[in-house]
Write a structure and sequence with these properties.
Blueprint: H1 13-39, E1 41-44, E2 48-53, E3 57-62, E4 66-72, E5 82-91, E6 94-101, E7 106-111, E8 117-122, E9 127-131, H2 135-144
Parallel strand pairs: 7-9
Antiparallel strand pairs: 1-2, 2-3, 4-8, 5-6, 6-7, 8-9
Length: 149
Protein backbone atom coordinates (compact mmCIF):
# COMPACT_ATOMS: atom_id res chain seq x y z
CA UNK A 1 0.00 0.00 0.00
CA UNK A 2 1.26 3.41 -1.02
CA UNK A 3 0.77 6.23 1.49
CA UNK A 4 1.41 9.85 0.58
CA UNK A 5 1.61 12.87 2.78
CA UNK A 6 1.19 16.42 1.52
CA UNK A 7 2.87 19.33 3.21
CA UNK A 8 2.54 23.00 2.31
CA UNK A 9 4.16 26.24 3.26
CA UNK A 10 1.95 28.91 4.81
CA UNK A 11 1.63 32.15 2.89
CA UNK A 12 3.56 34.77 4.86
CA UNK A 13 1.68 37.95 5.83
CA UNK A 14 4.10 40.12 3.82
CA UNK A 15 3.01 38.28 0.64
CA UNK A 16 -0.63 39.27 1.29
CA UNK A 17 0.47 42.86 1.87
CA UNK A 18 2.43 42.91 -1.41
CA UNK A 19 -0.54 41.44 -3.29
CA UNK A 20 -2.88 44.04 -1.76
CA UNK A 21 -0.50 46.87 -2.73
CA UNK A 22 -0.20 45.60 -6.31
CA UNK A 23 -3.98 45.25 -6.66
CA UNK A 24 -4.42 48.74 -5.16
CA UNK A 25 -1.96 50.27 -7.64
CA UNK A 26 -3.68 48.55 -10.58
CA UNK A 27 -7.13 49.72 -9.43
CA UNK A 28 -5.84 53.28 -8.93
CA UNK A 29 -4.23 53.29 -12.40
CA UNK A 30 -7.45 52.07 -14.03
CA UNK A 31 -9.49 54.71 -12.20
CA UNK A 32 -6.97 57.42 -13.13
CA UNK A 33 -7.33 56.45 -16.80
CA UNK A 34 -11.05 55.67 -16.95
CA UNK A 35 -12.51 58.50 -14.84
CA UNK A 36 -11.19 61.33 -17.05
CA UNK A 37 -12.45 59.53 -20.16
CA UNK A 38 -15.88 58.86 -18.67
CA UNK A 39 -16.30 62.31 -17.08
CA UNK A 40 -14.78 64.39 -19.92
CA UNK A 41 -16.81 67.42 -20.99
CA UNK A 42 -16.54 70.63 -22.96
CA UNK A 43 -18.89 73.29 -21.60
CA UNK A 44 -19.49 76.31 -23.79
CA UNK A 45 -20.74 79.49 -22.17
CA UNK A 46 -21.10 83.09 -23.33
CA UNK A 47 -17.59 84.12 -22.25
CA UNK A 48 -15.76 80.88 -21.49
CA UNK A 49 -15.20 77.34 -22.71
CA UNK A 50 -14.40 74.93 -19.90
CA UNK A 51 -12.68 71.69 -20.88
CA UNK A 52 -12.63 69.22 -17.99
CA UNK A 53 -11.37 65.68 -17.53
CA UNK A 54 -11.81 65.20 -13.78
CA UNK A 55 -9.96 64.60 -11.58
CA UNK A 56 -6.80 65.27 -13.59
CA UNK A 57 -7.31 68.45 -15.53
CA UNK A 58 -9.37 71.51 -16.19
CA UNK A 59 -8.64 74.11 -18.87
CA UNK A 60 -10.44 77.40 -19.58
CA UNK A 61 -10.56 79.36 -22.81
CA UNK A 62 -11.84 82.90 -22.49
CA UNK A 63 -13.49 84.50 -25.49
CA UNK A 64 -11.42 87.67 -25.00
CA UNK A 65 -8.16 85.66 -25.30
CA UNK A 66 -8.92 84.22 -28.75
CA UNK A 67 -7.05 85.73 -31.65
CA UNK A 68 -8.51 83.49 -34.37
CA UNK A 69 -10.63 80.37 -34.82
CA UNK A 70 -10.31 78.06 -37.83
CA UNK A 71 -11.65 74.63 -38.72
CA UNK A 72 -8.83 72.46 -40.05
CA UNK A 73 -8.08 68.84 -40.93
CA UNK A 74 -4.98 67.47 -39.24
CA UNK A 75 -4.30 65.27 -42.28
CA UNK A 76 -3.95 68.47 -44.35
CA UNK A 77 -1.98 70.29 -41.62
CA UNK A 78 0.51 67.67 -40.41
CA UNK A 79 2.59 70.35 -38.66
CA UNK A 80 -0.27 70.76 -36.16
CA UNK A 81 -0.58 67.05 -35.40
CA UNK A 82 0.06 66.19 -31.72
CA UNK A 83 3.41 64.44 -31.44
CA UNK A 84 4.48 64.18 -27.79
CA UNK A 85 2.18 64.12 -24.78
CA UNK A 86 3.46 66.53 -22.13
CA UNK A 87 0.63 66.11 -19.62
CA UNK A 88 -2.64 64.39 -20.25
CA UNK A 89 -4.23 61.21 -21.45
CA UNK A 90 -3.70 59.56 -24.80
CA UNK A 91 -5.73 56.56 -25.85
CA UNK A 92 -6.30 55.29 -29.40
CA UNK A 93 -8.60 57.88 -31.00
CA UNK A 94 -8.82 60.00 -27.84
CA UNK A 95 -6.40 62.67 -26.60
CA UNK A 96 -6.80 65.28 -23.89
CA UNK A 97 -4.08 67.43 -22.37
CA UNK A 98 -0.96 69.35 -23.25
CA UNK A 99 0.92 68.11 -26.30
CA UNK A 100 3.96 69.16 -28.30
CA UNK A 101 2.94 69.44 -31.96
CA UNK A 102 4.98 68.39 -35.01
CA UNK A 103 6.00 72.02 -35.56
CA UNK A 104 7.41 72.21 -32.02
CA UNK A 105 4.71 74.45 -30.55
CA UNK A 106 2.74 73.54 -27.43
CA UNK A 107 -1.04 73.11 -27.54
CA UNK A 108 -3.92 72.06 -25.36
CA UNK A 109 -5.66 69.24 -27.20
CA UNK A 110 -9.09 67.62 -26.81
CA UNK A 111 -9.52 65.35 -29.83
CA UNK A 112 -11.79 62.44 -30.60
CA UNK A 113 -11.22 62.66 -34.36
CA UNK A 114 -8.81 64.44 -36.70
CA UNK A 115 -10.85 65.18 -39.85
CA UNK A 116 -12.48 68.34 -38.52
CA UNK A 117 -10.71 70.17 -35.71
CA UNK A 118 -11.32 73.65 -34.31
CA UNK A 119 -7.98 75.45 -34.04
CA UNK A 120 -8.01 78.36 -31.59
CA UNK A 121 -5.01 80.68 -31.67
CA UNK A 122 -4.71 82.50 -28.38
CA UNK A 123 -3.29 86.00 -27.84
CA UNK A 124 -0.38 84.60 -25.81
CA UNK A 125 0.66 82.36 -28.71
CA UNK A 126 -0.87 79.17 -27.31
CA UNK A 127 -2.90 76.86 -29.51
CA UNK A 128 -6.02 74.93 -28.60
CA UNK A 129 -7.23 72.02 -30.75
CA UNK A 130 -10.81 70.85 -30.11
CA UNK A 131 -12.69 68.07 -31.87
CA UNK A 132 -15.52 66.70 -29.73
CA UNK A 133 -18.15 64.32 -31.02
CA UNK A 134 -21.18 66.11 -32.52
CA UNK A 135 -18.68 68.53 -34.04
CA UNK A 136 -21.23 70.29 -36.29
CA UNK A 137 -23.49 70.93 -33.31
CA UNK A 138 -20.47 72.19 -31.33
CA UNK A 139 -19.65 74.67 -34.12
CA UNK A 140 -23.28 75.79 -34.33
CA UNK A 141 -23.34 76.57 -30.60
CA UNK A 142 -20.05 78.48 -30.87
CA UNK A 143 -21.43 80.46 -33.82
CA UNK A 144 -24.71 81.21 -32.03
CA UNK A 145 -22.84 82.47 -28.94
CA UNK A 146 -20.50 84.64 -31.01
CA UNK A 147 -17.31 82.63 -30.54
CA UNK A 148 -16.80 82.19 -34.28
CA UNK A 149 -18.21 83.99 -37.28
Amino acid sequence: MYVSYIYTLPVPPIAWIIIAVIVGVIVFALIAILLPVMLFSIRVGNDEILIAAPPLMKFRVRKSDIESATVISLSKCPELHPKIRLYGIGLPGWRVGWYRLNNGSKAFVALSQEDRVLLLRMRGGELVLLAPNKFSEFLAVLHRLGWIS
